[in-house]
Amino acid sequence: MAVHGALLANTSEQPRQGYLTSVRSVQLHVARLDDLLGELKVQAERLSGDANNILYQFAVSHAERCLLEGRAAAAKFASPLVVNRDYEGDIRQAGQDYADRFLRAIHGYQGPVILELFGDADRDFIRRVADAMPNWTLEISLETHSDEVRSAFGRPYKNADIENTMRYALEAGVKRLDVFFMIGLPKQDYQSVMDTVDYCEYLMRDLDAVPQGSERRLIPFISPLAPFLDPGSPVFENPERYGYHFFARSLEEHRQALVQPSWKYVLNYETRWLNRDEIVDSTYEAGMRLNRLKARYGLVEKEQAERTEARILKARRLIAQIDDIMSVQDEERRGRLLRAIKPQVDDANLSTVCDKTELNVPLKGLRLNLPRAACFFVEHSFKSLLSRL
Predict the structure, then answer these.
(1) Residue range 322-331: average pLDDT?
(2) Among 41-45, 78-82, 131-135, 338-342, the least confident range
């Protein structure tokens, strides 16, 4: 991409610095690359762009087989871009004065903006956001329907306050409102996960009530806290205090986990309320129920929902099959059986509990794919959340 940018540059102008601003829609079709013989083919294709921003699609393949793929966004600046990583996410984290200055500085910007909130906001703040950047999408990490579970996870705000924030955003004209829920939280049992799915229906039905035929903007997602709880986080350092048990502690143990045959065995934890089997089972059941609700409320097409459900059912069968194989004592025979079903596992590992197209955000001609995918085989960052525990 850097070479392509240099080829496109005007030779009469001073070179401009470029930055990789995001990597999205990443799909890993294999667990590792170092066991492949021969050359790897790397391709990058420019999808869209202007003088300042370029979106590429990239892929790595071997022997005509795609190993990984995704999209990358690059930005060019006349001078170095200074990013204070302590303030990424909710613009209010650095204080209200910072948020006010940010909104004044960006006021009038017509391009797409994705804003995240880590807590509730009043109507005045939401109105100022909408006025400053009208082409905006809002992400809210509600995590769970339960105030008790959310508080145990370090998020003390209440449903009522966040629901008001979502109402303010919808009435202010937010283009899309994505609400994220997680599985594997402190004090969260199987029934609590199912109750969260019921709460998602309430949000779609009552909070985002629209006339028939109109497009809904509130879209819920649910996924497990996976694959790892962050080493070095308070939970990792004091698991008993928060009700967690870890299967991997060292770097080598985590490396070994990453090459396990299914995501169940990759998980580095279980909780006092959900063991590893229950995390997997509740993930698939919640994903299937939420998928059906999205179809009922018109968030996904019927055919798309049917494809997603078929993938979930297939993944469940594969998990059971892998469990049976893992119980085989003969190591050589176990390896042969796992290699035999590996193509099926690689196929099932992608976009299982939701269709990847659900994460695409159309904003004025540019389709962005949200970094916080609900598909659990895409890497998900929880550092900003765990640091609050």
Answers:
(1) 93
(2) 78-82
C-alpha 34/C-alpha 79 separation (Å) is 38
Token couple for 15: 């070179």
Query: What residues does 54 pair with on adjacent strands?
Result: 49, 74
Residues 6+ apart with CB under 8 A from 303: none
Domains present along the chain, CATH in parentheses: 7-80 (3.10.129.10), 84-331+341-356+363-386 (3.80.30)
**How far is Cα 125 from Cα 231, in angstroms, rounded to an integer?**
35
- Taking the C-alpha atoms of residue 19 and residue 39, their distance in angstroms, rounded to an integer, is 28
CA 236 – CA 194 distance, rounded (Å): 26
Q: Which element (helix H / strand E) includes 224?
A: strand 218-224
* Cis, peptide link before residue 186, omega less than 30° from 0: no
| Structure confidence by residue, pLDDT tens digits, 306-325 | 999 998 999 999 999 999 99
The CA-based dihedral angle spanning residues 65, 351, 173, 107, taken in that order and rounded to the nearest 10 degrees: -50
Q: Cα(12)–Cα(22) distance, rounded to whole angstroms? A: 29
Judge contact between 201 and 209, C-beta under 8 A.
Answer: no
Least confident of 57-66, 87-96, 130-139, 273-282: 87-96
Tokens of 318: 């594969």
How far is residue 341 from each of residues 129, 257, 258, 336, measured CA to CA in Å?
50, 18, 17, 9
DSSP string computed for 247-302: S--SHHHHHHHHTSSSHHHH--EEESS--HHHHHHHHHHHHHHHHHHHHHTTSS-H
- The pLDDT confidence band at residue 383, using thresholds 50, 70 and 90, is very low
97-105's contacts with Cβ under 8 Å and 24+ in sequence apart are 99/125, 103/128, 103/129, 103/132, 104/132
Q: Is the dihedral of CA 121, 375, 89, 75 positive or negative?
A: negative
pLDDT digits (tens, 9 = 90+) for 33-49: 888 888 999 988 888 77
What pTM, to 2 d.p., does this model score?
0.70
CB neighbourhood size of 75 (10 A):
16
Rg (CA), the chain: 22
Task: Please tell me the distance from the alpha carbon of residue 249 to that of residue 228, in angstroms, as a whole number.
Answer: 10
Q: CB pairs under 8 A, 24+ apart, for 264-268?
A: 264/319, 264/322, 264/323, 265/322, 265/326, 266/226, 266/227, 267/224, 267/226, 267/227, 267/228, 268/227, 268/228, 268/229
